[in-house]
């Protein structure tokens, strides 16, 4: 069983319960700020799952997604719940898997009206491929009432308002600016943003359709469509969790990523147990010194300053987008402050900040190589 669980987050109690009843050997895991996780495994397999309830809204979802990632270093993160359908071909009880999440309420108010300023996050190619593979089979729906619900892949709109009208200004705004969205909900944007800032880990939003966002929500809720829809979403999500866990056997999903470096293929590795990675490279020219002499001082502060300069150059040349750069700068600041504090507790903060930084810049080969040196220096101080 992998050391990296799959984190599953929900917003409503009935969503939490739908996942919880699929888990066995549950143990309580308390975060030091009070968040309660239940950690167990899926009853039909060996996949470990850390489950938490985050409440409604994108802000709380973003904060607790970040907290879950820092706490568990998961192999994948799934957000599971209900949503309203935005197109008539999507039936009650169907499952929608987000290929993109829109934060649809951003805009600018001008004299001639409100103009959209959308933000969006795409689901990673690897996670999308896994989800589509599962969706092409009926195995995930085993145990659900017949006929099996359909699985739809498409964008999801996430805001802070429950939409229950087809004629309101809110509904017109979504049709005008986000008419490709399949469903609407209230947490996906926060989850997607937190996932984006934490690197290559797969983050997938999975929604069961419980209403049509058309004024009939009270009727469909009374008919128990929320409970039916979330049961379907939970079935698909747990099948996807098993698949991600299988892909991540021995940490493979997290630690093996190819990057083009002068025509070569580079593999990034994480040392296990008491071992330590000294250097990672393709072709190396010149001398190499592995290990650290305790009598030889190391300049971690200088290495961090040099990495910051490389980070700024990557931003200036467009190889690093603004959001990733800002998140990387924030982690670099935390690392510098922890280094200056020079306490046992600050060493843990330093290590965590560098790990988060590694996730953010892992797709930029020269930054990843430079950061490997920084991390090696930091490990030599412990």
From TrEMBL:
One record GO biological process: nucleoside metabolic process
Residues of the Nucleoside phosphorylase domain: 5-240
InterPro entries: Nucleoside_phosphorylase_d, Nucleoside_phosphorylase_sf
Entry-linked Gene3D superfamilies: Nucleoside phosphorylase domain (3.40.50.1580)
Superkingdom assignment: Bacteria
Pfam families assigned to the protein according to its UniProt record, in alphabetical order: PNP_UDP_1
GO MF annotations in UniProt: adenosylhomocysteine nucleosidase activity; methylthioadenosine nucleosidase activity
GO cellular component: cytosol
Name used for this protein in its record: Nucleoside phosphorylase domain-containing protein
Native source organism of the sequence: Acrocarpospora macrocephala
């Amino acid at each position: 069983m992998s050391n990296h669980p799959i984190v599953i987050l929900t917003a409503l109690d009935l969503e939490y319960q739908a996942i919880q009843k699929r888990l066995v050997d549950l143990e309580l895991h308390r975060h030091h700020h009070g968040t309660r996780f239940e950690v167990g495994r899926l009853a039909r397999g060996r996949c470990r799952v850390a489950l938490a309830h985050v409440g409604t809204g994108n802000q709380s979802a973003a904060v607790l997604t970040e907290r879950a990632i820092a706490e568990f270093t998961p192999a994948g993160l799934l957000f599971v719940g209900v949503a309203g359908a935005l197109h008539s071909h999507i039936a009650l009880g169907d499952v929608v898997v987000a290929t993109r999440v829109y934060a649809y309420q951003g805009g600018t108010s001008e004299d001639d009206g409100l103009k959209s300023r959308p933000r969006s996050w795409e689901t990673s190619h690897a996670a999308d491929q896994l989800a589509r593979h599962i969706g092409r089979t009926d195995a995930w729906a085993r145990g659900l009432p017949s006929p099996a619900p359909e699985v739809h892949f498409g964008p999801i709109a996430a805001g802070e308002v429950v939409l229950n009208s087809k004629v309101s200004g809110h509904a017109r705004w979504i049709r005008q600016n986000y008419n490709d969205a399949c469903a609407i909900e209230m947490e996906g944007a926060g989850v997607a943003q937190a996932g984006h800032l934490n690197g290559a880990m797969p983050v997938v939003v999975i929604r069961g359709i419980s209403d049509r966002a058309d004024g009939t929500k009270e009727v469909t809720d009374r008919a128990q469509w929320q409970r039916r829809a979330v049961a379907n979403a939970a079935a698909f999500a747990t099948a996807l969790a098993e698949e991600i866990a299988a892909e991540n056997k021995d940490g493979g999903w997290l630690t093996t990523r190819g990057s083009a470096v002068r025509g070569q293929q580079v593999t990034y590795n994480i040392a296990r147990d008491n071992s330590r990675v000294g250097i990672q490279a393709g072709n190396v020219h010149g001398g190499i010194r592995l290990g650290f002499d305790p009598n030889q001082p190391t300049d971690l502060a200088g290495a961090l300053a040099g990495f910051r300069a490389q980070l700024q150059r990557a931003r200036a040349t467009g190889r690093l987008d603004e959001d990733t750069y800002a998140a990387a700068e924030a982690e670099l600041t935390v690392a510098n402050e922890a280094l200056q504090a020079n306490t046992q507790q600050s060493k843990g903060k330093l290590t965590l900040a560098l790990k988060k930084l590694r996730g953010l810049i892992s797709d930029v080969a020269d930054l990843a190589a430079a950061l490997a040196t920084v991390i090696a220096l930091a490990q030599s101080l412990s």
